[in-house]
Amino acid sequence: MVKVITYGTFDLFHEGHYRLLERAKALGDYLIVGVTTEAYDKTRGKLNVVDSLTTRIENVKKTGFADEVIIEEAAGQKFNDIKKYHIDIFTVGSDWVGAFDYLSDYCKVIYLERTKNISSTMLREKNSRIQRIGIIGTGRIAQRFMPEAKLVSGISTQGVYNPHEESTRQFAKKWEINGYTDLEEFYEAIDSVYIASPHGTHYGYIKSALEHGKHVLCEKPMVLKKAEAKEVFECAREKGLILFEGIKTAYCPGFGKLLGIACSGTIGNIRNVEACFTKLEKPENRELTDPIYGGSFTELGSYVMFPILKLLGEDMDEVRFDSIRGDTGLDLFTRAVFRYPTGIATATCGLGVKSEGRLLIAGTKGYIVAEAPWWKTSYFEVHYENPDEVEKYSERFLGDGLRYEISDFLTMINRVGKSGFKLTRSESITLAGVMEEFMKAEERGG
Ligand code: C2G
After folding, report:
1. Four-residue CA torsion sign, 413, 416, 422, 426
2. Mean pLDDT of 317-334
3. Model pTM?
4. Which of 95, 151, 155 gets mutated to test ligand 1 (max ligand atoms within 8 A of its CB)?
C-alpha cells in the first residue's frame, strides 16, 4: 500500500485546495492530510486565518479524498510524521518547490502544480471572502509582494500586468501566475490590484483600476499631487471601493505599539520628531535616474513624514526643504523641516548618502527612540530624565512586512474591521500635498 501525506491550512476552502487533495490521493492508496493549528500558523507568520480548525478539518473531510486527518502543531513535525506513519510520498503545491527537499532522504517528495486560477463562479457560489488580486508592475517590490501575499489567508494572487511582454512572461513564470500585457484582460481576471509600478504611473493606474470596479492597494508615494489624491479617494468612495496607500510602517504591529505609547502621555506633550531613513542605491537604478520622479525624497519621504503626521498632526504652519543634489540634478539627500504651533520635526532621507537611521520623539516628560530599521518597527526604548530609567519594548516584525498591509487591505474589503485609522485618507492627501510642494521647490515637471 502506497501512503501519501500532505499538509496545509485549508482556510476558506477553495478549488486550489480541492485539486491538490484530489491529485495527492491519486498518487497512492492512502492519503493522510495534516491540518495546521492556529498556534502553528501564528508561529510560521501566516496572518488572517478565518476558519476555525474544526471547520478546516470538516472541509478537508468533505472532499472524500482524505483517509485520515491529523493536526500539524509545530515546525519539524513533518519529519516525525513520515517515520510514524510509514509514509512513501510527501506532497505539497509547487509554491513550495525546494522547501521540503530535506524530507527526500526519508520518502519521495513531489511538488504538484499549484492552481493558478480560483474561478469567479466558484467564489460567487461558495465564498466571497477570497480576493483574487493582480499586480501591476514586475519590479523589486512586486517580487517581494508574492511571498508575503502567500502568507495572508484569503488572498489569491492570480495575475500580473506589465505592458513589457518579456518582463511579464518572466515574472509570471517564476511565480506561477498568469501574465497579461492587455489591461482589460487583466482586470477581467481579478477583484483587486496591487500597484507596484513606477511612481509616475500610479495616478493613471489607480483611476483605471477604480473605473473597472477594482479595490486598490498602491505602493507609496500613492500620488504626488494633492488634487490627484483627493480625486482618487473621492472616486473610490463613490464606487464603494477600498483605496489604500501602502506605507508598510503604518500597518506593522510594532509601530502601532510605539504610537500607542507616544500618544498615551507617557513622554508628555510631543515637541519634536526626528525621522531619518537613508540607503545607498546603485547610481544606475531608476530611483537615481528618473529625472522627474527619482531622488531620495520621492523614494523615502513617505516613511519619514509618516510618523511626523501621526504624532504632530496635519496642521503644520510651514514645511521647508533642503537638498543636496548629485550629478543628475536629483536629490541624494533631503531634509524637510516641519514647523507646528507647538513643535518642530525633521524628515531626513538619503539615497546616495548614508546616515544613522533613527526615529526620535521628544516630549515634555521623556523621549522615545527607535533605531534603524525603525520603519520595520521591532524594538524601541522610552527614556526619562533619570538615565537609569529605560523601558524597552519589542514586537515581532515578520518577513518583509508587506503582509500586514495586505492583511489590513483584505480586512477593509471584507468590512470586518476598521483599520483605516492606521493611515487615514486625510493623511495620505496631506502626504501627497507635501510631495507636491517638494516637487515645486525642485522645479520638477510631471
Ligand atoms: N494550493 C494550490 N493552489 C492554490 C492554493 C493552494 O495547489 N491556488 C495548495 C498549496 O500548495 C498547499 C495546499 O494547497 O499544498 C494547502 O494550501 P494552504 O492552505 O495555503 O497551506 P500552506 O500554507 O501552503 O501549508 O505545513 C503546512 C504546509 O507547509 C503547507
Report:
1. positive
2. 94
3. 0.93
4. 95
